[in-house]
Design a protein that fits this description.
alpha+beta; Arc Repressor Mutant, subunit A; Chorismate lyase; 2 domains
């Protein structure tokens, strides 16, 4: 088919394709409002009816959400925090097709704070590993992990931008067999607001996990702050593989 006889792409589909490209490239970020419909229709030189057809395409593709009286927003990232596996969070997200990266905010060996010392039953020094998990370049989780001696010094030199803590432990001869985790709702505090690029008081999940080695010795204490509007908590239940307990927080 020659160029002169090729069917013309309707204006609303060209607009939808352009907006979709900008959303996927991060020009409009998850949760962010798109410009007002009148502004977009003027920018693309089309009527409001044509623009609304384009927005309908994006809504059908799951890229935007429209809220009456508020406007049009880029759909939040649909990422799942799996509670039924012992895999790293990064591995789970990558398997879901997300682009994940890690920023290391600190990796120091020092004395353990009291609560961590009790969890790990550790009297000596611990590795304190502080990381920021980014999804598509956007921070979604702040995670602090503590590892006791004798592994603290040995693990402190790993590159945790590309190596998971579980992989580093495996390299040190530690076999991970189970973990106990508690996840509760919370509010983002001032100390972490800048890291997660959200105002203090934003809704978050707080995960507290203790990981055990084959001899039932606790080898990692974790505390993760997870943005509640970008990550959902998901479990696959089976009679023999997962036990969930429901309790009150008061």
């Amino acid at each position: 088919m020659t160029e002169s006889t090729a069917p013309r792409v309707p204006a609303y589909r060209r607009i939808a394709a352009d907006l979709a490209t900008k959303i996927r490239a991060g020009e409009y970020r998850p949760g962010e409002a798109l410009p007002a419909q009148r502004e977009l229709s003027s920018r693309y030189g089309v009527t409001l009816m044509t623009l609304r057809q384009a927005l309908q395409e994006l809504r059908d593709d799951g890229l935007i959400l429209q809220q009456a009286g508020r406007g049009t927003f880029v759909a939040p990232v649909q990422a799942a925090y799996r509670v039924d596996t012992l895999r790293s969070f990064v591995d789970d997200l990558r398997d879901q097709g997300h682009q994940v990266s890690t920023e290391v905010l600190g990796a120091v060996v020092s004395a353990a704070p009291g609560p961590v010392r009790r969890i790990l039953t550790a009297e000596g020094q611990v590795l304190r590993l502080e990381r920021l998990r980014l999804l598509g370049g956007r921070p979604v989780i702040h995670q602090t992990s503590w590892v006791p001696e004798p592994y603290a010094e040995a693990l402190s030199g790993a590159d945790y931008r590309t190596t998971s803590l579980y992989a580093a432990l495996a390299g040190a001869g530690v076999t991970i067999v189970r973990a106990v985790e508690r996840i509760i709702p919370g509010l983002l505090d001032e100390a972490l607001a800048a890291h997660l690029e959200r105002p203090a008081g934003s809704a978050v999940f707080v995960s507290e996990r203790t990981t055990f080695a084959a001899d039932d010795r606790p080898v990692v204490a974790d505390r993760a702050i997870i943005l509640g509007d970008l990550v959902e908590i998901r479990a696959e239940r089976a009679a023999t593989t997962l036990s969930l307990q429901w309790g009150t927080t008061i």
